[in-house]
Backbone:
């Protein structure tokens, strides 16, 4: 039996009924009186100079109430393009009209004169000197190097006093390679040990290039916001977002409006996956249109707009080299990565270092670049950057294991770090569950007894991720009927409200059903970090725990007063405070105490929890797939998919399994079918017809295996569970396909055509 | 969606008259039209529903074993019809590949064909069944063999005001089969589609029809491959030759889904496979 009665239980979600009945209110359900319909006018070319924008005809159309361009952004912060567009679908203007059809018609009446420029869509082309330059920057250096050089120049004016500082910067510059790349938006360089020496000592060295496509988060609900600016200047925004407080500060910063003039109301979120933090995508245009028209305005993206102007996950090209001894010790690994950051900087280039995985690799060197292309910018997607880097790292591990004749699971186990091993970022590993998690999946999948018919294969891979942490606040009130109310401001993301509710019910020893949770807007609720980075259960769970413990203190205080005894003699159990020393038994219920509290000096039972930061503990996800490949058609069928994950402690095992399954399915999709496709005219598959997300018919039941190695600072030991399960799946699939057909596909997705092609190149006749 | 006038005529003649006007569109199941209208890619000035016109729905079997399918018959009904499943399996299989069950409960076979997409899932099966398309217009009725219906992507021989009323499938084959090449298991568009139907007598193929979708500007029959098969006993070598002949008859394009070369290869592979299945069905 568990020592807990509510946490650790598979309880139904607190929002199940409103979701199932359709009562949940999403952004598009918000319709204040007098609301206008917004429409963003977008570039029809991926790269062009804008010669003119003429809105005069559109303004004359009856029903059009406001048209805005960059001229209407008082702060001057870039919301719309002015002289140059850098991707197909980049916003140029926005319209508010009394009817969506009128807005659509007005958009057609806005005359935009373009001077079309050659575009570049591929990072390997963009870094060449022949590529069109997106930002008119003719220098070969990336922004980091430019800023270091500028600083050296600045310090040089006082050479004598600054010589030490200058020398330090010169050393920093030496880390940067001499290669000349163009259109670089950012770069990062990391080195530990000596890779050259490391490779020399290896018996086996493998090199390959891995290509991972740009994919979209494909949350079910497209971006939407409804903004209402009143005559006093107060702005209300109903926003479909993962982080209402981040949106509030984002709007304030972009438009130069005082923070507390803005109230953001988070609407029920139709999926986020990291892609729902954007401020200017819909929220800022909606506010500007409302300010100009004096009416509430809804700006809602279509699915096509999501593909053109969402902020998807970056694709990348990773050249990777790994060396090991014939006994199986990995000695060196080196990566050169080019991340497609689109028209702005910001791709997850820092995640390239994740090629090191959870292995003891003494020598490692990583050079990573963000590269501009004529595409929209990128954003987070479930463990940003990790699936890409881990795909390369874990694919190559299998190649090494094969060359030295080792079992892929044994090879990984042999190289995995354990508690006390030094970690590359400094310090040593805490108690981690890497080996336990890999062993658990191998045992559950039947890896050691695995069998495969012709064209069938097994693949394994692991991925690591550490949850984030952030500030949060929670209030807990106990009412006179013994029920408990939670008040907070964090957005529910796949069951986090349920986890918070379970934690508070556990501490206050009341039935789960008697605890309800209420979310406030940014005007009313305490600050809360965004619901991303697997932070919510860790952060808000800890916060909720503190709030419930605070309420618990007040409850005992009241009970001691009421029962006229010492607090040491009291115990809160089953929703009542008991005098442990009393015979016959003596107790008072929470409801009675709440009623009593109303006439006390100390007042009602209100618990407050406030929390910001504690170190997190890394979590591992390990997966095994069995596939069958049809060598004639190249189609791959998944026969078995088993996923284990160290979750620290599963506060709601059902929700945890849901997260594991969801992550695995998204990883599978990235490996096998999802891909944003581009040609010289921009994105060519902006819709669900040719951007394929899988359905339940594509996969067998995902078997989830929960491993619990507690995190010292997590609530009840919990670790963040949302992100880890997507990290190894890309490599798991590629490794299984390799095992089935004997050929490594290192360019995703593994579409039938690529498999047929690869087989043909290896002598398989159609 | 742009404003439009909506009509629900009660007779074919009235529907034809309305449909002959410019910028008029027929509404059958609406699974293509409504999506296009919402995306402003279709902006008809009038929409004419066929809903109230009697006699356009249902599947009937005639005494000569031929089957008639009303153009307004739901794709789901075609998929589940015992007569179609038994006698024109490839057509039922094609119908089962369209969209989701919800879509198939709305979409009609007439709409699937009149839309004239080279990748329509019922078209290969209708080609392999040698379906006759009945058409009604201002000048009366006429019948066109399905392989003469299409003139290009989205284009047919239908003249303004003409409406497809039914499909007649002549005497059934002994076995048929449809395979759709796709990435996603369900709810995908055909990269290519192949339907083969064979008649077998005493171990000899007496007749064969092969319908190909999404490998040419219009859906086509692989006539040369059919001729190779007729009068011969089915051997592995013969089926391989038929596959190659079908591939040679195709003229696919390269697009974002896959290359022309891959499509040709798949015509070869799937023609061979559909023939194998069709022959197995013929034997049982």
Residues:
């Amino acid at each position: 039996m568990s020592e807990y009665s509510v946490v650790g239980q598979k309880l139904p979600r607190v929002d199940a009924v409103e979701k199932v009945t359709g009562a949940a209110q999403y952004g598009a359900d918000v319709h204040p009186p007098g609301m206008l319909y917004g429409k963003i006018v977008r570039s029809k070319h991926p790269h062009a100079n804008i010669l003119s924008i003429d809105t005069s005809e559109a303004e004359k159309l009856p029903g059009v109430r406001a048209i805005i361009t960059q001229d209407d952004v008082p702060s001057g912060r870039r919301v719309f393009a002015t002289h140059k567009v850098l991707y197909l679908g980049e916003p140029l203007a926005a319209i508010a009209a009394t009817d969506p059809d009128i807005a659509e018609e007005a958009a057609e009446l806005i005359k935009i004169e373009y001077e079309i420029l050659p575009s570049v869509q591929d990072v390997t082309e963009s870094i060449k000197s022949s590529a069109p330059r997106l930002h008119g920057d003719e220098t070969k250096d990336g922004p980091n190097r430019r800023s270091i050089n500028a600083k050296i120049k600045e310090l040089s004016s006082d050479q004598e006093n600054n010589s030490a500082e200058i020398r330090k910067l010169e050393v920093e510059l030496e880390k940067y390679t001499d290669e000349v790349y163009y259109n670089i938006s950012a770069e990062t360089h990391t080195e530990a040990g000596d890779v050259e020496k490391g490779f020399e000592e290896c018996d086996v060295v493998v090199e390959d290039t891995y290509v991972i496509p740009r994919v979209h988060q494909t949350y079910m609900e497209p971006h939407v916001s409804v903004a209402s600016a009143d005559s006093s200047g107060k702005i209300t925004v109903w926003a479909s977002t993962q982080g209402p407080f981040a949106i509030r500060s984002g709007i304030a910063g972009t438009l130069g409006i005082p923070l507390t003039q803005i109230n953001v109301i988070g609407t029920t979120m139709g999926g986020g996956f990291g892609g729902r933090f954007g401020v200017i995508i819909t929220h800022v245009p909606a506010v500007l249109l409302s300010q100009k028209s004096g009416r509430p305005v809804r700006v809602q993206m279509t699915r096509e707009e999501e593909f053109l102007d969402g902020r998807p996950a970056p694709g990348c090209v990773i050249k990777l080299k790994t060396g090991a001894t014939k006994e199986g010790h990995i000695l060196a690994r080196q990566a050169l990565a080019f991340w497609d950051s689109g028209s702005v900087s910001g791709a997850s280039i820092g995640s390239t270092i994740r090629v090191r995985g959870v292995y003891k690799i003494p020598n490692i060197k990583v050079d990573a670049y963000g590269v501009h292309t004529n595409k929209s910018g990128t954003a987070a997607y479930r463990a940003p950057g990790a699936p890409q880097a881990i795909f390369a790292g874990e694919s190559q591990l299998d190649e090494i294991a094969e060359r030295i004749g080792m079992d892929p699971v044994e090879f990984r186990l042999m190289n995995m770090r354990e508690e006390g091993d030094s970690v590359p970022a400094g310090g040593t590993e805490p108690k981690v569950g890497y080996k336990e998690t890999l062993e658990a999946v191998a045992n559950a999948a039947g890896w050691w007894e695995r069998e495969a018919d012709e064209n069938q294969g097994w693949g394994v891979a692991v991925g690591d991720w550490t949850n984030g942490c952030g500030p949060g606040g929670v209030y807990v009130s106990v009412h006179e009927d013994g029920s408990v109310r939670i008040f907070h401001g964090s957005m529910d993301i796949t069951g986090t409200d349920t986890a918070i509710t379970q934690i508070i019910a556990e501490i206050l020893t009341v039935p789960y059903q008697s605890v309800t949770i209420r979310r406030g807007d940014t005007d009313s609720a305490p600050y809360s970090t965004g619901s991303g980075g697997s932070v919510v259960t860790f952060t808000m769970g800890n916060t909720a725990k503190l709030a419930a413990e605070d309420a618990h203190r007040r409850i005992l205080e009241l009970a001691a007063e009421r029962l006229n005894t010492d607090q040491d003699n009291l115990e809160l159990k089953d929703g009542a405070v008991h005098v442990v020393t009393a015979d016959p038994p003596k107790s008072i219920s929470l409801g009675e105490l709440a009623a009593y509290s109303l006439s006390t000096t100390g007042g009602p039972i209100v618990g407050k929890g406030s929390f910001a930061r504690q170190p997190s503990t890394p979590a591992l996800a390990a997966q095994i797939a069995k596939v069958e490949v049809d060598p004639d058609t190249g189609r791959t069928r998944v026969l078995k998919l088993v996923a284990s994950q160290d979750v620290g402690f599963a506060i709601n095992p059902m929700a945890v399994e849901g997260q594991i399954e969801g992550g695995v399915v998204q990883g599978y999709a990235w490996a096998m079918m999802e891909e944003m496709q581009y040609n010289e005219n921009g994105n060519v598959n902006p819709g669900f017809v040719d951007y394929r997300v899988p359905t339940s018919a594509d996969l067998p039941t995902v078997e989830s295996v929960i491993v619990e190695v507690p995190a010292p600072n997590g609530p009840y030991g919990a670790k963040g569970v949302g992100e880890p399960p997507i990290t190894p799946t890309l490599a798991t699939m590629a490794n299984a396909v390799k095992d089935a057909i004997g050929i490594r596909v290192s360019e995703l997705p593994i579409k039938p055509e690529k498999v047929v092609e690869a087989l043909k190149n290896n002598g398989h006749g159609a | 969606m742009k404003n439009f006038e909506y009509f629900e005529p009660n007779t074919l003649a009235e529907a034809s008259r309305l449909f002959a006007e410019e910028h008029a569109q027929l509404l059958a199941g609406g699974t293509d039209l409504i999506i296009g209208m919402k995306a402003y890619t279709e902006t008809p000035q009038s929409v004419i529903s066929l809903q109230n016109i009697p006699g356009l729905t249902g599947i009937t079997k005639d005494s000569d074993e031929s089957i008639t399918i009303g153009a307004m018959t739901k794709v789901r009904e075609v998929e589940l019809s015992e007569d179609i499943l038994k006698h024109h399996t490839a057509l039922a299989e094609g119908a089962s590949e369209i969209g989701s069950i919800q879509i198939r409960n709305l979409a009609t076979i007439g709409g699937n064909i009149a839309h004239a997409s080279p990748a329509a899932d019922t078209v290969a099966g209708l080609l392999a069944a040698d379906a006759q398309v009945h058409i009604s217009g201002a000048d009366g009725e006429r019948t066109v063999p399905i392989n003469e219906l299409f003139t290009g992507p989205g284009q047919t021989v239908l003249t303004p005001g003409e409406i497809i009323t039914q499909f007649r499938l002549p005497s059934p084959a002994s076995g048929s089969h449809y395979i759709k090449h796709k990435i996603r298991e369900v709810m995908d568009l055909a990269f290519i589609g192949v339907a083969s139907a064979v008649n077998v007598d005493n171990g000899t193929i007496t007749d064969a029809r092969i319908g190909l979708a999404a490998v040419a500007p219009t859906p086509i029959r692989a006539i040369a491959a059919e001729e190779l098969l007729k009068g011969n006993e089915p051997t592995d070598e013969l089926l391989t030759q038929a596959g190659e002949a079908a591939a040679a008859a195709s003229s696919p394009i390269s697009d974002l889904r896959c290359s022309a070369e891959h499509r040709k290869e798949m015509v070869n592979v799937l023609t061979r496979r559909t023939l194998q299945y069709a022959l197995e069905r013929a034997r049982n």
